[in-house]
């Protein structure tokens, strides 16, 4: 049994999985990305016949996601994780649920009965304008990491911490990760 297979087994502790993730190399970015620009960098290349356990490793310092199958790096993507005051939690998680058309229950906008936006950046708990209807922000190709609202999903990615704690992936990479990930897949966030 390989180290990756052993670490990904459900009998192993989160500490063992976290140790495994620390051994995966991340390349340092060679240049800073303008945080006013969305980026869509990413790659995916799975050799024919490759099998084995899947593992996603998120590096919040480098703003990168790496996808492994059978211990082999097959995908990588720029991300945007949680900003100051809304940091993405660190540790070992498993995908709890998937939802291709998820809507945020906390962040979104308020629209009127005609569907026109009357409050653009609305957070649950704020006063609701008279006649307002809450519309949750789209979080397409979403994979739930915690029961407290942290998801990995499609969103604007700048390669800088910009989210409310979720891990945003560019649209095309969010779809690839979503399509290739099963509920229960381990995710290491460091």
Structure explained in plain terms:
- The chain is mainly beta and 190 residues long.
- Helices cover 13% and strands 37% of the residues.
- Strands 1-4-3-2-11-5 form a 6-stranded mixed β-sheet, with helices on both faces.
Give a quick account of the main beta sheet: strands, pairing sense, barrel closure: 6 strands, mixed
Number of individual domains: 1
The CATH homologous superfamily name equals L,D-transpeptidase catalytic domain-like
Mean pLDDT: 85
Note poorly predicted spans.
1-33
> Number of DSSP strands?
11
The strand line-up of the biggest sheet is: 1-4-3-2-11-5
Provide the gyration radius in Å. Answer: 18 Å
If classified by CATH, what would the architecture be? Answer: Beta Barrel
Shape summary = elongated
Structural class designation:
mainly beta
**Secondary structure tally, helices:** 3
Work out the strand percent. Answer: 35-45%
- Give helix and strand order, one letter per element, not per position: HHEEEEEEEEEEHE
Distance between the termini: 25 Å
